[in-house]
Amino acid sequence: MNVSRLIKRAITGWQSWRSKRRLYRELPALAYFDEAEKAARRSHGKIRDIRKAREAFMRDALAGRG
């Protein structure tokens, strides 16, 4: 792996972390959904239901209904 690819990965990772932090500050329920999905992954639970709930939450938040 060359240096420019490493730099790109570091920058995109940082940007992703920063945008997620902003979202969590504005919509704390998103952090709950991520934690629930992480717990479901650990226990081999159903992730599909959590993702559907997150999508519904985001749809309502973007529509101004939340």
Q: Can you walk me through this structure?
A:
The protein is an all-alpha fold and 66 residues long. The chain is 83% helix and 0% strand. It is built from 3 helices and no strands. Helix 2 packs antiparallel against helix 3. It is extended and about 45 Å long. The model has no long low-confidence stretch (mean pLDDT 92).
Quick summary:
The chain has about 70 residues and is mainly alpha-helical.
SSE topology sketch:
Elements: H1 3-26, H2 29-42, H3 47-63
Number of helices: 3
Distance between the termini: 44 Å
Helices and strands, in order, run as HHH
Structural class: mainly alpha
Largest sheet: none
Low-pLDDT ranges: none
General form? extended
Helix content: over 70%
Number of strands: 0
> In what range is the share of β-strand residues?
under 5%
The value of Rg in angstroms is 15 Å
- Provide mean pLDDT, rounded: 92
